[in-house]
Write a structure and sequence with these properties.
Layout lengths: L1 E6 L3 H12 L4 E7 L2 H11 L3 E5 L7 H11 L4 E6 L4 H7 L6 E4 L4 H12 L4 E2 L1 H11 L3 H12 L4 H11 L4 H8 L3 H15 L4 H11 L6
Parallel strand pairs: 1-2, 1-3, 3-4, 4-5, 5-6
């Protein structure tokens, strides 16, 4: 059972997300928070596998809460819930160590898949969010794509396959099943790629994969 903590200051949003997650018998919402401070306190208490965190919340916003969650519950994956008006926040959060970004208005199946992916050690990056983040980061698109492809050139074919599957939202185990290897092999590949490319986390790697064209646009 995947334990989820849901943090959003809007009661109706929390109710909607909770209802979506309830359709998956393998996911349980163990607590809800209305602001960042409450989210951190409840995460310490319940030790969830995943925290779904709204970016804009009172008292402590999602970016601040994400930083505190990393220190308080380092084994808990954090996924930011965002809207189309928050591109700048998403770009700022890229280096914060979060495990993913999902649109509040996205496909419900994308939400469930994202929760499962990060709980399994993967990254959750909505294709729409990925495209908008890349645009927000600035620079001419074809130039960025060329640079991204150049950065990925040193990777082996196997490593590129792992990166593409991770960016597509698959968990470590799902990637392992697809490639007919054990999960530990996938983790080793990802760790090696992050170190070689000088990236801090899997979400940064997923964005790079989108820039290089390893994953189709939304």
């Amino acid at each position: 059972m995947i334990k989820v903590l849901l943090a959003d200051d809007e009661t109706m949003i929390r109710a909607g997300v909770r209802a979506i997650l309830a359709t998956d018998p393998g996911i349980e919402v163990v607590a809800e928070a209305g602001d960042g401070h409450e989210a951190v306190a409840l995460a310490r208490e319940h030790r969830p596998d995943v925290v779904l965190l709204d970016i804009r919340m009172p008292r402590l916003d999602g970016l601040g809460a994400a930083e505190e969650l990393r220190a308080a519950v380092p084994d808990t994956a954090v996924v930011m819930l965002t809207t189309f008006s928050e591109d700048a926040f998403v770009a700022r959060a890229l280096g914060s160590g979060v495990s993913g970004f999902l649109l509040k208005s996205g496909d419900p199946r994308e939400l469930i898949a994202g929760v499962r992916a990060v709980a399994g050690g993967g990254a959750a990056l909505s294709p729409t969010v990925a495209r908008r983040v890349i645009d927000t980061l600035g620079g001419e698109r074809f130039t960025r794509a060329a640079r991204a492809r150049t950065r990925l050139e040193p990777l082996t074919g196997r490593e590129r396959e792992v990166v593409a599957l991770l960016a597509a939202g698959l968990s470590n185990q799902e990637i392992a099943d697809r490639m007919y290897v054990v999960e530990g092999t996938v983790k080793a590949h990802v760790s090696a790629v992050l170190a070689r490319l000088g990236l801090r986390n899997r979400v940064q790697l997923a964005v790079l994969a989108y820039e290089a064209g390893l994953v189709p646009d939304a």
